[in-house]
Description:
Blueprint: E1 2-12, E2 18-26, E3 33-34, E4 40-41, E5 62-65, E6 68-70, E7 86-87, E8 90-94, E9 106-108, H1 117-120, H2 123-128
Parallel strand pairs: 6-9
Antiparallel strand pairs: 1-2, 1-5, 3-4, 7-8
Amino acid sequence: MRLRYYRCYSCKNDTGAFGKDFEVRTEDSAPLVKLPDNTQGLAVTCPTCQLSNLDPRHGGNVVSVVCVHFEPPRTKDTHGREGCGHIACDTGVRVQAHRPKGQELYASGEPLAVNCPKCKESKAYKEMTLGGIHPSFDVPLPADEKGGPLVPELHDYQKPADKTQPPAEPLKAKK
């Protein structure tokens, strides 16, 4: 049996955004089928909305996802720079160990990139995210009218024109 990860973009996750993750246990010898985007893959169905990736119209909303583990930093001061060399959900698994093709291990020191459910439950992950709050956001983000974080726009950073200065004269063409 092998555990595979998928994401359904027709369903909302716990934060209210589209993209709910789910797991499927399959046999290693499960047959591959032709998907609507002309690739080969396993036939899976979202357990929440029952959408199949074989659906010709909306099947592209169910996608395969690579499992990204959390590699804790050596110390808390080296957030995202220098990992300790093992994954958070199983300290016996080395990150840099050689693996045969098809058995690759993906790990990140960036908590926002991690989707392994066991790593997210680990003490190291919870310490780095302060229980779910990412340490990079050291100030509270203002909310928009729907309650989500207000994303700054480019015009928020541009200084308004100084009305007291006369406008610059246009350049004259050289003869």
